[in-house]
Amino acid sequence: MEEDLLYHLGLSTKSVNFRKEFGDVKFVCVAGSAYRIKAFAQMLAKEAGLSTDLPNLAADGGRFVLYKVGAVLAADHGMGAPSISILLHEMFKLLHYAHCTDVTFIRLGTSGGIGVEPGTLVITTEALDTAFESFYSLRILGKTVKRPAPLDPNLADELYELAQTLPDNVPVVKGKTVCANDFYEEQARLDGAFCQFTESEKMAYLNQACSMGVSNFEMECTCFAAQCYLAGVRASLFYVVAAIVCVTLVNRLESDQVRLNPKTYARIQQLPGQLVLALLRKHNALSV
Amino acid sequence: MEEDLLYHLGLSTKSVNFRKEFGDVKFVCVAGSAYRIKAFAQMLAKEAGLSTDLPNLAADGGRFVLYKVGAVLAADHGMGAPSISILLHEMFKLLHYAHCTDVTFIRLGTSGGIGVEPGTLVITTEALDTAFESFYSLRILGKTVKRPAPLDPNLADELYELAQTLPDNVPVVKGKTVCANDFYEEQARLDGAFCQFTESEKMAYLNQACSMGVSNFEMECTCFAAQCYLAGVRASLFYVVAAIVCVTLVNRLESDQVRLNPKTYARIQQLPGQLVLALLRKHNALSV
């Protein structure tokens, strides 16, 4: 193509020198919320001794935020697999045009815990769909395609070890994570606008998840894992390793609703970012 | 429940008097982009002679924007079915707690056209999935559930008639709309980060869609139609009619990429809003 417009990022190969702007990127950190990832990027900027007045590099697209600090790109991905899949396609193309060679992708999320206390960090060992299979399913030209969704076990171990060094004895577990395509019905919540199952059916499903080693539910893990794997290993765009670290906001075996006081909520929302900051420090990713 | 926190809207039954704040709502207008729906809400405020400095009523949730002008609520829903499904669950609960009786839901979208020129308004007659069936599929407790996704034919006709009164002879068609769970591979684009089909396979799929009366592809229509239908008809939360009006940004039979100059892009993005404004005027929805 003469020009490639990364439409949702608002970045075009005609007007942006990708190699110059993004050639040094080694880490891509993504989160659902634009506010949360902005706060994370500002924390990185402060750590690097830079201004925290960071420009949104994806402002022209009108859909995502994108910040760069040192060798780190930070972006929001919205909620759900379709939204993160758009970000990933365009992020992979950005890194490809920038001639990046090896890149670590980390999703920093919030999630509903299964059998763990609110405020627990879950480092994902396996990304499952809501039938507890490790696939990202999409339909291409009308036909279902199931893509394997592996994550990097070494990076998960590294994050787990680093989490032991966080202050205040933050609880941390390694566990399986389920990707749902909805917050209410697909996550077996009874408190949506409608619900067509009983409390005992809900508990049977969640207990089954728990017995299989599931520690949390969120809405992007299979897509994130599968598309990173495909970009790195099969499409060989560049070498990719990927990890997911989420904090739990509720123990779903006890409640459907998130009931945290604002102070606790503000504190625990930052935990994935604090862990990833420790990783970035270790790898000198913030030096400019 | 003693308290119901609409988590992503950041509105709780403990701190918000839903009946007082939202009891007069008759129209809910939603769009993917926060910027676009804000511009729409500001246009409504101007029309109603109100300040355009509208507060985001969902600011505490940190995920969506929500504005109220007269009898109209306007919100963004992000990209994809999982994201809009969250907004709809919480919007239905909001309207239920507000004791609203009959409510018209309209999605104002952007889309990729099939066989129509960029800048065409498409009023959806039927919402299809990427296998061209009119269902919203979700997986509840691990089992697939297929929900019918009908839209209101009278409201579609009313919008179509009103569209004839828009200035500059805006092209408008009634047609079927396909909901994809991704922007690239599921919409048969060749220009994603990776692609596992050929140009001729792509064209065969798009031509099949065209021959079945499909006018455009977007990413929310089946979920929007099915959940509105379920809320209104089956769950009987309140009486709901729903419609979708999207503008096309590209003719997918000619290009995968959106190639519009900024001026044209800015103009045609506003067309769904201008049409819905005409509807709201007709129904006196903006008087305070």
From TrEMBL, chains A, B:
Which family would the database say this protein is a member of? Belongs to the PNP/UDP phosphorylase family.
Pfam families named in the record: PNP_UDP_1
Limits of the Nucleoside phosphorylase domain? 26-246
Q: What PANTHER family does the annotation carry? A: FI09636P-RELATED (PTHR43691:SF11), URIDINE PHOSPHORYLASE (PTHR43691)
Q: Which residues bind substrate?
A: Q187, R189
What biological processes does GO assign it? Answer: nucleotide catabolic process; uridine catabolic process
The species is Opisthorchis viverrini
Domain of life, per lineage: Eukaryota
This protein is called Uridine phosphorylase
Q: What is the lineage of its organism?
A: Eukaryota, Metazoa, Spiralia, Lophotrochozoa, Platyhelminthes
A GO-annotated cellular component = cytosol
Listed InterPro entries: Nucleoside_phosphorylase_d, Nucleoside_phosphorylase_sf, Uridine_phosphorylase_euk
**Molecular function per GO:** uridine phosphorylase activity
- Provide the residue positions that the database annotates as binding phosphate: R63, R107, L108, G109, T110
